[in-house]
């Protein structure tokens, strides 16, 4: 088992050394897999984030969802809370918390439904679909409140470890989509 700190360190090092071309090619493959999934195609609402710092590029997924007429909602952090707001275009985003592109906090655009999918960022994942984020717990708290969402992590294959350290606050995902394929969380009976 790899510790959260060790996994975070390895992934940060990998992403810092990743060429723009490799990131572009792997991101395109991941977007293609996500867009082709039945869960994505059937979803009325897509919770997603705007990628930064050599994360898997989410722009293609966002623009495809918008073109398909789906409700597309991105996170905004304020006063220690994360809420999702509907956007009509990537141009609706501006620099907010920690330099991350966020939607405005227009209350009319607030999205709060369990009918859809959540595409979740993470620094590291494992083959059981456990997730290690950036340490703030925002997504774990959000997913706790929305247990009926279909949850997907998107990551470069190197971000997926065999077994990663987790604790009781870490919410596992339903699947992790990488440039090499899809890992599904095993069903427990």
Topology:
Elements: H1 4-17, H2 20-36, H3 38-42, E1 45-47, H4 59-67, E2 71-78, E3 81-87, E4 94-95, E5 101-102, E6 110-111, E7 117-120, E8 124-126, E9 131-132, H5 138-145, E10 150-154, E11 160-161, E12 175-178, E13 181-184
Parallel strand pairs: 1-2, 1-7, 7-10, 8-11, 10-12
Antiparallel strand pairs: 2-3, 3-6, 4-5, 8-9, 12-13
Describe the structure.
- The chain is an alpha/beta fold and 189 residues long.
- The chain has five helices and 13 strands.
- It has helices spanning 4-17, 20-36, 38-42, 59-67, 138-145; strands at residues 45-47, 71-78, 81-87, 94-95, 101-102, 110-111, 117-120, 124-126, 131-132, 150-154, 160-161, 175-178, 181-184.
- The protein has an eight-stranded mixed sheet with strand order 6-3-2-1-7-10-12-13, with helices on both faces.
- Helix 2 runs parallel beside helix 4.
- The mean pLDDT is 92.
- SS content category: alpha/beta
Number of separate strands = 13
Oligomer: single chain
Please count the helical segments: 5
Give the DSSP E fraction (strand runs of 2 or more residues).
25-35%
Helix content: 25-40%
In short:
With 189 residues, this protein is α/β, with parallel strands linked by helices. The chain contains 5 helices and 13 strands.
Identify the notable features of this structure and list them briefly.
alpha/beta, 8-stranded mixed sheet, 189 residues
């Amino acid at each position: 088992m790899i510790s959260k700190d060790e996994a975070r360190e390895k992934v940060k090092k990998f992403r810092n050394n990743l060429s723009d071309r490799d990131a572009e090619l792997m991101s395109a493959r991941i977007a293609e897999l996500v867009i082709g999934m039945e869960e994505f195609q059937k979803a009325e609402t897509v919770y997603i984030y705007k990628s930064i710092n050599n994360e898997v590029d989410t722009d293609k997924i966002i623009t495809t969802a918008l073109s398909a007429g789906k409700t597309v909602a991105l996170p905004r952090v304020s006063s220690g809370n994360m809420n999702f707001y509907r956007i009509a275009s990537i141009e609706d985003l501006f620099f907010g918390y920690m330099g991350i592109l966020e939607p405005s906090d227009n209350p009319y655009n607030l999205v709060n439904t369990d009918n859809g999918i959540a595409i979740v960022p993470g620094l590291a994942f494992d083959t059981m679909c456990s997730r290690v984020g950036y340490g703030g717990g925002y997504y774990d708290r959000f997913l706790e409140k929305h247990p009926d969402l279909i949850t997907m992590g998107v990551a470069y294959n190197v971000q997926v470890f065999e077994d990663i350290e987790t604790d009781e606050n870490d919410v596992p995902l339903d699947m992790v989509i990488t440039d090499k394929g899809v890992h599904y969380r095993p069903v427990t009976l």
